[in-house]
Design a protein that fits this description.
Jelly Rolls, mainly beta, five-stranded antiparallel beta sheet, Immunoglobulin-like, disordered N terminus, 2 helices
């Protein structure tokens, strides 16, 4: 009996100490505001220079693209046939550390095109928990790394100095934790106009919210949504005029920020393009309300109310047979303007504005939300 006590008591004390060492949510968010990590970079070398327009599908490894890691446990890597890799069963198996949007066994996605892409993750376990990791992490623990980690995927130097307008796009698939997604597992898009000496953060892919009721730390959020299968999404950036006249580099930076809840499938990049405009026609569209609809004395004012719909071709080719049409709710009618409205051929750089006035009958006597659809079509596309 004495032998049993000598073994039993230290085990309980160890468990209690481990339990109380876990950070609170407030401590976790505070650490996210002041992350302490050191970027381990190889000796700086002049980046490879490439002309534009430039397209890379990474089928040949992405010449000129470089990676750097904060630690050795996980990093960006060029990967062929990622869909042949499955998440380790200790992470997502009979007693899962995490819950994903796909049934177990869950694999990595196919590349957006071809057989290869870049991925932030570890092929030993199919996630960004890192390697090695604690295989006894526990049911619904979220999959904890031994330390926080991150890394960068950096482009060659693009010869964009002669372009008046600069844009780039890429396709991405990602999956991270759903809790405090705006502060952890950060996916930054960065650009440099001085050869990589300094970097500006253009944006990050993380949604701008913290959590919703009923969500748990061990559940996933992906490019397809909460507890949903990830999907490939196209992201496009039109750079501000301040970047014109400079050769540019683009960088993708992933940071876990802490070591908690890292048993997810990470971040994929494929099919990158940069140039002065799309290779094909690309129609941007937006609506403006010169005199917004409001409620005055329980009636909509003005009624009818005006809407300007603006279409701009930011691509490199003409869009032919462009037509705008409307799908209106039952209470709406068109008081002024045409439906459908043919625009014909929209050349690169052209901007067209369509003016409508909508009448609401009968007028609502309280605040009401209306939705209608504007359908923009061309000879070879359909944009809703």
């Amino acid at each position: 009996m004495t032998f049993f006590k000598n073994i039993y008591i230290p085990i309980i004390l160890l468990a209690v100490a481990t339990l109380f060492s876990l950070p609170t949510r407030e401590e976790r968010l505070e650490s996210a505001r002041h992350p302490e990590r050191v970027l381990v970079l190889p000796p700086r070398a002049r980046p490879m220079t490439v002309p534009v327009p430039y397209f890379e599908d990474f089928e040949s490894g992405g010449p000129g693209w470089t990676t750097a890691a904060f630690t050795t446990s996980c990093q960006w890597q060029w990967i062929v046939d990622p869909d042949l890799i499955t998440v380790h069963t200790d992470i997502y198996g009979a007693s899962p550390m995490v819950e994903l949007g796909d049934p177990s066994p869950a694999g990595l996605p196919e590349p957006r095109s071809g057989n290869a892409c870049f991925w932030y993750g570890n092929p030993e376990n199919g996630t960004f928990i890192g390697e090695p990791f604690d295989h006894t992490g526990g049911f619904h623990s979220g999959g904890n790394s031994y330390h926080d980690h991150g890394g960068t995927l950096t482009s060659p130097l693009f010869e964009t100095a002669g372009l008046g307008r600069i844009m780039f796009y890429f396709w991405t698939w990602w999956e991270v934790e759903c809790i405090d997604i705006n502060a952890f597992d950060m996916m930054y898009i960065e650009v440099s106009s001085d050869g990589g000496l300094t970097w500006d953060t253009l944006n990050w892919l993380n949604p701008p919210f913290s959590r919703l009721p009923g969500w748990d730390e061990y559940e996933s959020y992906s490019s397809g949504g909460y507890l949903s299968s990830g999907i490939w999404i196209k992201w496009t950036y039109f750079l501000e005029p301040e970047y014109s006249g400079h050769d540019l580099m683009v960088r993708f930076e992933f940071e876990t920020v802490d070591a908690l809840y890292n048993g997810f499938r990470g971040w994929f990049i494929d099919d990158f393009y940069i140039g002065g405009g799309m290779e094909q026609a690309e129609l941007l569209r937006r609506a403006e309300y010169p005199n917004p609809l409001d409620m005055v004395d329980c009636l909509p004012e003005p009624n009818p109310f005006p809407v300007d719909f603006i279409v701009e071709n930011v691509g490199g080719e003409a869009a032919n047979d462009v037509v705008i049409s409307l799908e209106l709710p039952d209470d709406f009618s068109l008081a002024s303007g045409f439906d459908p409205m043919p625009l014909g051929t929209v050349l690169p750089g052209d901007v067209d504005t369509v003016h409508w006035e909508f009448l609401i009958t009968p007028p609502p006597n309280e605040d009401t939300t209306y939705c209608w659809h504007v359908i923009l079509t061309s000879a070879d596309s359909l944009i809703g």
